């Protein structure tokens, strides 16, 4: 038989997690602060817990997916004495420091702790393409991997509890950089009267072609050689970049999403790195000297 699971938190994501577990045949107990949100899941076969303590006691695997770190404590603290011997998997987004705090708290109460970062939106749960980052207790991961794989592809990042949150933040930061670029690009062309939908396929094609930058930049960074295989020099890119800002202004588009990169490019050129690749900007970020 399949392991029993308790799911605490039935927002958009917690509901998707519980639905996937039910669909895969796991005995599933659900709890939510606002009890009415348990109804649709109970109709699909979930057991309703009257309170958090009952939910924690019902299964050896306890998944928590609440709004934020304070909500995890406000929900779980009253049931802390029920955690002993259980695996607590926190799928609530948070910082690495918050994950470390929860790991210490869980171990004080005798629970194995895993922190998770969900790299999916709710409709992707249980479908190919979704993955979840985990860090913390290897025993808990090994024991419940088969169950966690029902939710999404599981990626274990080691015993440091904060690592999943760090990688999650890094991935989302990369995503927001892309969102910023896409929004700026669409603002430019729509200011000219082009429909966004007309331009979008070309934008995707270009971004796909450029996504290899993650790999080439990583090689330059790991070798601390920003001139390695350079095809577009920083000096050239810095010159062109100023023109991008001019074009935005000429078209009545605010350059504010794009503008912050300009001073970093100019500083690297001024420091004598114009012949290198743009990757060397990381030096300004890592030292914190970029302000
Ligand atoms: P929702 O806003 O849909 O749900 C929030 C949940 O938290 C509800 O169950 C709510 O209960 C509960 N809650 C809030 N405050 C408290 C509290 N003080 N005590 C107890 N319960 C509380 O959020 P999502 O389900 O979308 O997100 C949940 C987590 O998953 C977040 O950390 C989010 O970052 C993460 N996540 C979400 C993704 C998404 O696309 N949705 C993607 C990846 C991660 P109530 O019903 O009573 O209000």
Describe this entry's structure for a reader.
- This is 3-hydroxyisobutyrate dehydrogenase-like beta-hydroxyacid dehydrogenase.
- Residues 5-153 form the 6-phosphogluconate dehydrogenase NADP-binding domain.
- Belongs to the HIBADH-related family.
- Residues 1-18 form the signal peptide.
- Keywords: Oxidoreductase, Signal.
- The chain is of the alpha/beta class.
- It folds into 2 domains: 5-159, Rossmann fold (3-Layer(aba) Sandwich), CATH 3.40.50; 167-286, N-(1-d-carboxylethyl)-l-norvaline Dehydrogenase, domain 2 (Orthogonal Bundle), CATH 1.10.1040.10.
- The chain is 51% helix and 12% strand.
- It has 12 helices and 8 strands.
- It has helices at 12-23, 39-43, 52-58, 69-76, 96-108, 138-151, 163-191, 196-210, 213-222, 234-250, 261-273, 281-286; strands spanning 5-8, 28-31, 47-48, 61-64, 87-90, 112-119, 131-136, 153-156.
- It has an 8-stranded mixed β-sheet, sandwiched between helices.
- Helix 7 (163-191) packs across helix 8 and helix 10 packs antiparallel against helix 11.
- The protein starts with a strand and ends in a 5-residue tail after the last helix.
- The mean pLDDT is 97.
- The protein binds NADPH dihydro-nicotinamide-adenine-dinucleotide phosphate.
- NADPH dihydro-nicotinamide-adenine-dinucleotide phosphate binds next to helix 1 and helix 4.
- The site of NADPH dihydro-nicotinamide-adenine-dinucleotide phosphate (NDP) has 22 residues, from helix 1 and helix 4.
């Amino acid at each position: 038989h399949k392991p029993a699971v308790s799911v605490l938190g039935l927002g958009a994501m917690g509901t998707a997690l519980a639905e996937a577990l039910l669909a895969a045949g796991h005995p599933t107990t659900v709890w939510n602060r606002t009890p009415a949100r348990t109804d649709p899941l109970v109709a699909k076969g979930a057991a309703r817990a009257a309170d958090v303590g009952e939910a924690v006691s019902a299964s050896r695997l306890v998944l928590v997916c609440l709004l934020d770190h304070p909500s995890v404590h406000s929900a779980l603290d009253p049931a802390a004495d029920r955690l002993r011997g259980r695996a607590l998997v926190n799928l609530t987004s948070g910082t690495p420091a918050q994950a470390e705090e929860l790991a210490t708290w869980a171990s004080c109460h005798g629970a194995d702790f895993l922190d998770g970062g969900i790299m999916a939106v709710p409709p992707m749960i249980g479908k190919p393409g979704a993955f979840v980052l985990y860090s913390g207790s290897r025993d808990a991961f090994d024991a419940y991997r088969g169950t966690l794989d029902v939710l999404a592809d599981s990626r274990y990042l080691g015993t440091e509890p904060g690592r999943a949150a760090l990688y999650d933040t890094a991935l989302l930061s990369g995503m927001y950089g892309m969102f910023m670029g896409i929004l700026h690009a669409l603002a430019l062309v729509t200011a000219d009267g082009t429909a966004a939908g007309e331009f979008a396929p070309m934008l995707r094609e270009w971004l796909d072609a450029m996504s290899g930058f993650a790999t080439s930049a990583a090689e330059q960074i790991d070798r601390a050689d920003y001139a390695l295989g350079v095809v577009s020099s920083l000096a050239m890119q810095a010159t062109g970049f100023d023109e991008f800002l001019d074009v935005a202004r000429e078209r009545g588009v605010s350059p504010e999403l794009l503008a912050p990169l300009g001073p970093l490019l100019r500083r690297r050129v001024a420091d004598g790195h114009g012949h290198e690749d743009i990757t060397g900007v990381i030096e300004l970020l890592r030292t914190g000297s970029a302000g």
